[in-house]
Specification:
6-stranded mixed beta sheet; Serine Threonine Protein Phosphatase 5, Tetratricopeptide repeat; FAD; Rossmann fold; 46% helix; 6 strands; DNA repair; flavoprotein; alpha/beta; Crypto/Photolyase_FAD-like_sf; single chain
């Protein structure tokens, strides 16, 4: 059953006698445990129509580059295989996602869309809403608890958000039943003037795209739901038990590495949470805190705060204290290029930067240290924020999303409290290299990163 709170009618248009039900897939790039997909299948069966799934591949998504496109296309290729097995046609068109949705909606009985929270995605939905002449329904599938159910406003911290969302987790943490499609659409011909993209050869698709090639693809992570599920199983079987104790230790390997797959909607957070919850591990509560409370706090922030891409989103106390210490003397001041090339005096910071550049993902604890030091070693907080966002969005597979923006802002005081006042940071939480050396075998982390191939 799909909970009613996940379903939102975006208009009140009457059902059309069209050729198919259209599922405009954009944020939930998977066939497994996808509420929007199962809703679309059930509607197609109800009105005895085939289901067509469309994905719009734009060449100019903000700050996306070869690394991001490669990972996403690997996932889309994996997805197409899964959809064919379910007798569903998957159409990838080379265009802005809203443009393709508007054209394909003309022949549709109804349109279903999944839900993203970034301003670019919201703008797409608004554009389609202006022209669509059939029912337009949005189904939320990338969070455990629908964002407006979790809270009706932006939450100040994890503590306030936790109290609210915990009231609803049990209701929404439910396995989704897969519905067979009654009328196959695999062999349907869908006329369109927009170029169609074949997913048979990912490298060939990439060579035909005019995209930013400055960041190479990574060999350390490959996209796709099947890959994500295998990684999850390995984590639950071999790493989960140590998660509570070692998740913050960069010298240990006790992370799930789910964030790139969650970023592209290639795996369901409900599936992840259920799989972990069903285990006997003593670390499962610590992991569920991260996958539900912390992750969905970031979604809450981006949904309710239009300033999520800039420092105006910080709490007043953080803005005030950073302003008061803006002119404090910095022992080190680095340029964007020096940061990007890992040319600081600090081997631990350099290793964190190189891990991100080489692999597409930085250890979570080191990402906090990384952001704090950019604040400390840049001439002012505003420039530091711009550098951190730019590097995070450029190299991380899981940048450019609610958790990416929230994670960077956390380094500047978001979702945190005031601490003891000091130079540069003011009352914003401070981190230093001595803490890394005291808590962890941090030199082994540096050695491991340095030994990695790009």
């Amino acid at each position: 059953m799909i909970q009613a709170e996940r379903i939102k009618k975006l208009n009140e248009k009457p059902l059309k006698d069209g050729e198919y039900v259209l599922y405009w897939m954009q944020s939930s790039q998977r066939a497994h445990q996808n509420h929007a997909l199962e809703y679309a299948v059930s509607k197609a069966n109800q009105i005895h129509k085939p289901l067509v799934i469309y994905f719009g591949l734009t060449e100019n998504y903000p700050e996306a580059n070869l690394r991001h496109y490669t990972f996403m296309l690997e996932g889309l290729k994996d997805l197409k295989t899964s959809l064919i097995q379910r007798n569903i046609k998957f159409l990838v068109l080379k265009c802005s996602p809203d443009v393709g949705a508007m054209e394909l909606s003309k022949r549709a009985s109804m349109v279903v869309v999944d839900r993203g929270y970034l301003e670019e995605q919201v703008e797409w939905y608004k554009n389609v809403l202006k022209t669509v002449e059939c029912p337009f329904v949005q189904v939320e599938s990338n969070v455990v608890v629908p964002v407006e159910v979790a809270s009706f406003k932006e939450e100040y911290s994890a503590a306030t958000f936790r109290r609210r969302i915990k009231l609803h987790i049990e209701k929404f943490l439910v396995l989704l039943k897969e519905v067979p499609l009654e009328k196959s659409s695999v062999s349907m011909e869908i006329p369109t003037k927009i170029p169609e993209i074949s997913l048979d050869d990912v490298d060939e698709v990439l060579s035909g795209l005019e995209i930013d090639l400055s960041v190479p693809k990574t060999e350390h992570f490959h996209g796709g739901t099947s890959v994500a599920i295998k990684l999850l199983e390995d984590f639950v079987e071999n790493k989960l038990d140590g998660f509570a104790e070692f998740r913050n230790d960069p010298s240990m390997d006790h992370l799930s590495n789910m964030s790139p797959y969650l970023h592209f909607g290639q795996i369901s957070p409900v599936h992840i949470a259920l799989r972990v919850n069903d285990s006997e591990s003593s670390s499962k509560d610590a992991f569920l805190e991260e996958i539900i409370i912390r992750r969905e706090l970031a979604v809450n922030f981006v949904h309710y705060n239009p300033n999520y891409k800039n420092m105006d989103a910080l709490p007043d106390w953080a803005l005030k204290t950073l302003k008061e210490h803006e002119d404090d003397r910095r022992k080190y001041v680095y340029t964007l290029q020096e940061f990007e090339t890992a040319s600081t005096h600090d081997p631990y910071w350099n290793a964190a930067q190189m891990e991100m550049v080489k692999t597409g993902k930085m250890h979570g604890y080191m990402r906090m240290y990384w952001g704090k030091k950019i604040l400390e070693w840049t001439e002012n907080p505003q420039k530091a924020f711009e550098i951190a966002i730019r590097l995070n969005n450029k190299y991380e597979l899981d940048g450019r999303d609610p958790n990416g923006y929230t994670g960077v802002l956390w380094c500047f005081g978001k979702h945190d409290r005031a601490w003891k006042e000091r130079e540069i940071f003011g009352k914003v939480r401070y981190m230093n290299a001595k803490g890394l050396k005291r808590k962890f075998k941090i030199d082994s982390y540096v050695e491991r990163v340095n030994s990695k191939e790009p």
